[in-house]
Write a structure and sequence with these properties.
Elements: E1 6-12, E2 15-24, H1 29-41, E3 46-57, H2 59-73, E4 78-82, H3 86-94, E5 102-104, H4 107-112
Parallel strand pairs: 2-3, 3-4, 4-5
Antiparallel strand pairs: 1-2
Helix pairs in contact: 1-2
């Protein structure tokens, strides 16, 4: 069911770019939480989450992102979202997360905001 879920990471000028592919639901959201926790533990506080290939996100995953945003902001960091498709963007808007996350059209735009 979620065999297409994947996190692809790269570092660009000290910013961790994480591309999420597939469905981010209750089965795989803990994997994202674990990975972000490990990165923050290793003093990585600036992230771009590229959602170009994200097909679904649930409330648990959104809660994880919101919690990590609060945590990295305590270290003067940030999480910016990029490449949200219309479906994912609508979900973020419906729950008000578009007001706390900076949402950028492209990964490059998100990187430039740091």
């Amino acid at each position: 069911m979620n065999s297409n879920f994947e996190l692809i990471e790269k570092d660009i000028n000290g910013i961790k770019v994480i591309k999420i592919t597939g469905e981010l639901d209750a089965m795989v959201a803990p994997k994202l939480k674990e990975r972000l926790a490990k990165l923050v533990e290793n003093e990585t506080y600036n992230f771009v989450i590229n959602c170009e290939e994200l097909s679904h996100i649930n409330s648990l995953a959104m809660g994880i992102l919101r919690g990590k945003l609060r945590e990295v902001k305590n270290h003067d960091g940030d999480i910016k979202l990029s490449n949200l498709n219309d479906h994912i963007k609508t979900i973020f808007e419906m729950v008000g997360l578009d007001e706390i996350f900076e949402i950028c059209a492209t990964e490059e735009e998100a990187l430039a905001k740091f």
